[in-house]
Amino acid sequence: MFFKDKILNEEEPKLSIGFFHLSSCSGCQVAFLDMFEAAVEILDTVKLVYSNMLTRQKEIPYLDVAFVEGALCLEEQHHLNLIRELSEKSKIIVAIGGCSSFGGVRRFSCGNQPPQPQHQSFVPITEVELLKGKVKYAIPGCPPNSSLLYNFLLALLELNDDFLQPFEIMALSKKASGFDVIAEVVNKGLCVGCGTCSAACPTRAISFKIECAKPSFNPSICVHCGSCLASCPQSFKPYPQPTYT
Ligand code: SF4
Ligand code: SF4
Ligand code: SF4
């Protein structure tokens, strides 16, 4: 019960969190900072100790939770140094958004967001060997919704495992495109035609027509953010694999 213990600890009563930026558009950080208006009520239990947008801190302090947006560029020494420092100074790391969790537009160069020519190789932090076991949660989205980030922070403070478990699964998952919704839900006969995947898609790569009652997918505009599969009410159910006899 680490985080709860910490909050009850009178000498260090606040959960220290930081926000760190790798190769990204900063959209996830904007969504993260957006939640702070709603987060006023938890400011007595949380302290933002690092953010390149909001704090003047140059040195990275030791902290409880590092939220990281963006993919790691293998040709960028600054990124490699940051990852090494976070592996030593943070207790856990949370990947925020498709770039950090799955590679997103960085790795796949899609959605009309190609990387700079000198930067060719990107990996999500969930796949970095040095951070194995340290990246405990991944939050899908491009960017994730601010309310989702707020609720995630609350769940982290309360150690609400029911809420956190899907994010733990996402940190170990490589399933982050509309293809996975088709393969994991529709093709297995699990789709109930609710349309949530389509509503969650930031690029409309997943569309939904009432008359078809099933989603369809346009891979050319998918940014591999993982929102569709994560938001599908059928995707986390432990159904057995279908058999065709
Ligand atoms: S996941 Fe989307 S919003 Fe977040 S940094 Fe990547 S491109 Fe930007
Ligand atoms: S289909 Fe849409 S929601 Fe699903 S991964 Fe692609 S961009 Fe994200
Ligand atoms: S969210 Fe899941 S169940 Fe709903 S339409 Fe999409 S694939 Fe089907």
From TrEMBL:
<dbReference type="InterPro" id="IPR037024">
    <property type="entry name" value="NiFe_Hase_small_N_sf"/>
</dbReference>
<dbReference type="Pfam" id="PF01058">
    <property type="entry name" value="Oxidored_q6"/>
</dbReference>
<comment type="similarity">
    <text>Belongs to the FrhG family.</text>
</comment>
<dbReference type="GO" id="GO:0016491">
    <property type="term" value="F:oxidoreductase activity"/>
</dbReference>
<protein>
    <submittedName>
        <fullName>Coenzyme F420-reducing hydrogenase gamma subunit</fullName>
    </submittedName>
</protein>
<dbReference type="GO" id="GO:0046872">
    <property type="term" value="F:metal ion binding"/>
</dbReference>
<dbReference type="InterPro" id="IPR017900">
    <property type="entry name" value="4Fe4S_Fe_S_CS"/>
</dbReference>
<dbReference type="InterPro" id="IPR006137">
    <property type="entry name" value="NADH_UbQ_OxRdtase-like_20kDa"/>
</dbReference>
<keyword id="KW-0479">Metal-binding</keyword>
<dbReference type="InterPro" id="IPR051349">
    <property type="entry name" value="Hydrogenase_assoc-protein"/>
</dbReference>
<dbReference type="Pfam" id="PF12838">
    <property type="entry name" value="Fer4_7"/>
</dbReference>
<feature type="domain" description="4Fe-4S ferredoxin-type">
    <location>
        <begin position="182"/>
        <end position="211"/>
    </location>
</feature>
<keyword id="KW-0560">Oxidoreductase</keyword>
<keyword id="KW-0411">Iron-sulfur</keyword>
<dbReference type="InterPro" id="IPR017896">
    <property type="entry name" value="4Fe4S_Fe-S-bd"/>
</dbReference>
<feature type="domain" description="4Fe-4S ferredoxin-type">
    <location>
        <begin position="213"/>
        <end position="242"/>
    </location>
</feature>
<dbReference type="GO" id="GO:0051536">
    <property type="term" value="F:iron-sulfur cluster binding"/>
</dbReference>
<keyword id="KW-0408">Iron</keyword>
